[in-house]
Design goal:
Layout: H1 5-25, H2 33-46, E1 53-56, H3 62-69, E2 74-78, H4 81-90, E3 96-98, E4 111-117, H5 128-138, E5 139-152, E6 159-162, E7 169-173, H6 174-183, E8 187-194, E9 205-212
Parallel strand pairs: 1-2, 1-4, 2-3, 4-5, 5-7
Antiparallel strand pairs: 5-9, 6-7, 8-9
Length: 219
């Protein structure tokens, strides 16, 4: 089988928008203090570990750089080759690789942490369990996941499509996404749902889920 159409469209879309994306959002964490606070909490949990932390869907690398500034041994992964090239140019002391978040070329249990900030929004709903299974595989026992995404507080559906300039996108039910993470074998540590009034672009809720891979998993 060839590459899935949605992946090709997403990759090509972000390839063409990489420079504009960095210009628009490179300093955006200053405008979203609650997002930055969750990244800080995540950094506190993973800092000092013996394994690296992966920023999945890192885009031009500014969140990866924020993790490094917080003392985390972070690296980035993105589907878009242009995003990866821009990240390498902007942050030459950080390792960035191109790849798919559902098939990361790292051994089992090789990460102390995994951050995914808005990187699942282009994933077809039926593919989300496979992505979460890969997150579980990558995390070492005791490792932490911070997953953030455009959200909906209604649990009647898993996903609601919305218009996006780059590729088809979804906002996700916070409760149902948390349930899928639990089904993947992860344990919830905390969650935060930011009010839609704080989203100046679309007026969506924004979900932050902090999960942990159990140190000892049930057989």
């Amino acid at each position: 089988m060839g590459e899935l159409e949605h992946m090709r469209r997403t990759r090509d879309g972000y390839d063409s928008a990489a420079a504009q994306y960095l210009q628009l959002f490179g300093n955006s964490l200053r405008e979203y203090p609650l997002d930055d606070a969750m990244i800080g909490a995540f950094a506190d949990l993973v800092r000092g570990g013996s394994r690296p932390v992966l920023d999945v869907g890192c885009g031009p690398g500014y969140v990866t750089d924020r993790l490094r500034a917080l003392g985390v041994r972070a690296r980035g992964l993105d589907l878009s080759s242009e995003m990866v090239a821009l990240a390498r140019e902007t942050f030459p002391d950080i390792e960035f690789e191109q790849g798919r978040m559902a098939e990361v070329a790292l051994p089992d249990g090789s990460l102390d942490g995994l951050l995914s900030r808005s990187s699942i929004i282009h994933t077809p709903p039926g593919d989300l369990p496979a992505v979460f299974a890969e997150f579980h595989r990558l995390l070492a026992p005791g490792g932490h996941l911070l997953l953030t995404f455009q959200a909906h507080v209604d649990d009647a559906e898993l996903a609601w499509p919305f218009d996006h300039k780059v590729a088809p996108a979804y906002r996700w039910s916070v409760g149902r996404v948390a349930a899928l993470l639990r089904e993947a074998g992860l344990q919830e540590t905390a969650r935060m749902v930011v009010a839609p009034e704080l989203d100046p672009i679309r007026g969506f809720h924004y979900g932050h889920l902090l999960f942990r891979k159990p140190v000892t998993e049930s057989m």
